Amino acid sequence: MDLPSLIPVENTLDGQIGLEIGAHGDDWIEATVAVGDHVKQPMGLVHGGVYASIAESITSMATAVGVYADGMSAQGLSNSTNFLRPIFEGTIHARAERLHKGRTTWVWDVRITDDEGRLAAISRMVIAVRPLPD
Predict the structure, then answer these.
(1) SUPFAM superfamilies annotated for this entry (predicted)?
(2) Rounded CA gap, 57 and 96, in Å?
(3) Which residues of the chain have a pLDDT value below 50?
(4) Is 20 tagged catalytic?
(5) 74: buried, middle or exposed (CB in 10 Å: 19+, 13-18, 0-12)?
(6) Which of 10, 20, 30, 56 is flagged as catalytic?
(7) C-alpha 116: how far from its chain's center?
(8) What pLDDT is recorded for position 8?
(9) Structural domain boundaries of the chain?
C-alpha cells in the first residue's frame, strides 16, 4: 500500500509488532504478524492489545487508500475487539471486510485467526474520514 508516512514504519507500533500487509482489494485487506515474545503478555499468549492494534491499523490503511486521493485522511474512531481463543505461537492472521462506506465514516469487520484457521478475536472498527491536515 502506497501512502505517505511522516514516521518510518519501522519506528511505529506496526513496525514494532511486525505487521505485514498481504493481499487487499477495494473492500477487504489481509495481514499477518509472526508470534514472538514481543507480542505476548506475561502468561505467554498474544496480548489482546495486539489484536486491537492489528484491526485498527489495517482498517485505517485500507480506508486511507480509498480516500487519500480525495484529500481525506482516515483514523480510528471506534474499536470494539472481543477475544475468543488465545494464540501462543505461529502466525496471527487478520482479514478485514468493509461493511459501510460513508462520507464521514467507514465500518469494518475484522476476523483474527491462528494458523489452523480458528477464530481468536473479532473486531468491529469504525474509521473516521476527515480532511487531510494542512
Answers:
(1) Thioesterase/thiol ester dehydrase-isomerase
(2) 10
(3) none
(4) no
(5) buried
(6) 56
(7) 20
(8) 77
(9) 9-131
